[in-house]
Amino acid sequence: MHAYSGIGYGVIFCLISAAFDVYVGYITQSISPAVIILYCFISSAIVFLLFSIFKQGIAVFYKAKANLPLLILTNVAVLLNWGGLIVSLRYLEPAIVGIASVACGPAITTIISRCIDNRNGKNSGLEFIISWLIMVGVILMLFNSLMGKSGVTTTTADERLIGIICVILSALGTVTYTFISRELYQRQWETYEILGFRNMLMLLIAVVYCLYADVPLSINMRLAAPMVLLVVIGHLLPIYLIQNTIKRLQPLHVSLVLLLLPVFTLLLQYFDTRVEVSFDSIAAVSIIAILLFILGINKIIGNPKTRGE
């Protein structure tokens, strides 16, 4: 039952997050990514920290102190994941960001595991080949994007390079955060507690950057309503959904559910007038998603322990 609800949470998360990715790519042309990060993450920190205090009282701070090293790693993972995501969406095609962020984690994990230990079973050879095909596909896709062969052609080469670096960091943060969250759940942490403490580093860096770069924190009235929707529906709701997905599913199953994210993003991104139809991007996203699906199914068939909880 937990697995089915986890899949449900994950599918809804992917749909909302795809719309979020497309909209962030559009709105960051008018608002600094640092301002979006500040508004989104200060809202979620306040909401979930206050709820944690309401449920647990001051004991939640003692709990945080006892697990400080893990919480620091959680904050670093969130900084990489969300910081990299929001910045990359400013410069790259949303579907490319979506597939790169979900493809790198499982593929890199499989490649590293194979190199460290060659005794991974009869399916490890196929997994290794598929993982390398995925990585080569991602590299070629990002290179094409760097050369301007994607749905977003209005950015400079330097901006696209920044976007590519950020999406790689986002992928690293995604897989790291999944495993750290699982460890926190093993230590009896609740979803709202994790969400209350995970944003501190992100907020600190966003505030310092805004002050240093003299970025105005106010937004005009035309963008006030979209920002509220972005914070509530685009950020608060999705982070709650994905946290519950992670809680209920194995990391590999989470990765498989997240394959829907770039598919939804590919379908929705053309509502953004900046994005042109790019058959190179469509082909790359489709092929990598299929390879990831084959990799995930192969892992599940080859390892009965990952078939469910």
Automatic annotation (TrEMBL):
Alphabetical list of Pfam families matching this protein: EamA (PF00892)
Keyword Transmembrane helix in record: yes
GO cellular component, one term: membrane
Superkingdom in the source lineage: Bacteria
EamA domain span: 162-294
Membrane-spanning intervals of the chain: 7-28, 34-54, 66-89, 95-116, 128-148, 160-180, 200-217, 223-242, 254-271, 277-297
Keywords, ordered alphabetically: Membrane, Transmembrane, Transmembrane helix
Protein name: Transporter
Organism: Yersinia similis
